[in-house]
Amino acid sequence: MSYIRKITNSEELSKIIDLPDDLKNKKVEVIILPYEENTKTKKSHKSLQGSLKKYKNQELINEENTAWEKMVKDKYENS
């Protein structure tokens, strides 16, 4: 793979791209590499929705609405 590597004054680059303040008025190294999009390595994002479905417990799901109330009652009932 061929590339270009050059050390230059950042003022030359500021004509082409916006540079952060901490790079202005300094020597910088510029490396230019070819961009090759490879569709084989391109990852697609899959949804994890439903991946834990086999672990669900319907009885516990039904109790979720009152879980906080039960916990507070158990903890502070005799205080």
TrEMBL record:
Name this protein carries in UniProt: Uncharacterized protein
Lineage per the UniProt record: Bacteria, Thermotogati, Thermotogota, Thermotogae, Petrotogales
